[in-house]
Amino acid sequence: MHVNVLSMQLQCLMVCALVLFITAGADKVPAVIVFGDSSVDAGNNNHILTVLKSNFPPYGRDFMGGKATGRFCNGRIPPDFISEAFGLKPLVPAYLDPDYNISDFATGVCFASAGTGYDSATSDVLSVIPLWKELDYFKQYQTTLKGYLGEQKGDKIIQEALYLISLGTNDFLENYYTLYKRRLEYNVDKYQDFLLNIAEDFFRQLYGLGARKMSITGLPPMGCLPLERTTYAIGGFGDSCIESYNNVSRSFNAKLSSLVKMLNQELPGVKMICADAYSIFYSLIRRPSLYGFRVSNYACCSTGYYEMSYLCNQFNPYTCDEANTYVFWDAFHPSERTNQIIADYVVKRYLHVFM
């Protein structure tokens, strides 16, 4: 009898602690604001003139209601899981989506655009939203938010929001290694520095607009993406990655970390975190069975070796039945389960400081 009562009391305490934890997170972070590329795009590309879209089946087949929202995934993406972890809504809506308005955006908004990068020349490749335009949208959002909530409350949300920034992959894989212009201007080390100068300017502008809590994600293991393995015939049908690309990712991430450390020391009141997801992503790819995955060297959608966007479509007979047993959904993007694992890792390892 006493044991059962004690057990019930302990369970009650655990539930109360969980509720307090989530509530505290929501109090400290009233909104999640997202900048970046397809790793975090909630569907902005649906509403611009570009071929880089994913608002059709089988994208979104494991999303709520089976809806293809424009997320490059079978389900949710990291900002959705991070928002939920902070006690906010389980979805961060796209700013250009007409189904949402400022009442929805008050607790989270996504300005990201698939295919973009730090370098404006990267966004030109597939005519997507450049980073400077994402910043312009943020300025519009600030004005609308303050009009909706009032100046004081709007400023409070802007200052206390968590800013998620995920960029850089397309600068290398879509631009530097695919086109000649930047390679004629820079070696890879100098191109990294070129991107980091743009990144620094962007972070400073965000700070000037009121942002104080920033999480910056670096590059993934680029050489392990199925599309890159297949393109260079290195491990596309096996277990190898392009290590030269992975070395670039690690080098860039180290430089990004140094930049973040410098800005933390220089900008009063800022708290910037370099949320490096490289290690967990690489571990998922190299040791998938430890995380319950079956396949990590090719993707679920279509053949899994090179298809993404319109090549990943509902008419392809090769798409797998259980996407979340695959590390990758399409040849470039993680499955929902991978996104959830990465988001959980990032929250527990880095973002807990904002809770």
Short description, anyone?
The chain has helices at 2-28, 78-85, 102-105, 120-125, 131-149, 151-160, 169-176, 181-185, 188-208, 226-231, 243-266, 278-286, 336-349, and strands spanning 32-36, 108-110, 162-166, 213-217, 271-274.
Task: Describe this protein's structure.
The protein has 355 residues and is an alpha/beta fold. The protein has a domain at 28-222 and 240-278: 3-Layer(aba) Sandwich (Rossmann fold), CATH 3.40.50. 45% of the residues lie in helices and 6% in strands. It has 13 helices and 5 strands. It has helices at 2-28, 78-85, 102-105, 120-125, 131-149, 151-160, 169-176, 181-185, 188-208, 226-231, 243-266, 278-286, 336-349; strands at residues 32-36, 108-110, 162-166, 213-217, 271-274. Strands 2-1-3-4-5 form a 5-stranded parallel sheet, with helices on both faces. Helix 2 crosses helix 13 (336-349), helix 5 packs across helix 6 (151-160) and helix 9 runs parallel beside helix 11. It is globular. Mean pLDDT is 92; it is low at 1-8 and 12-25.
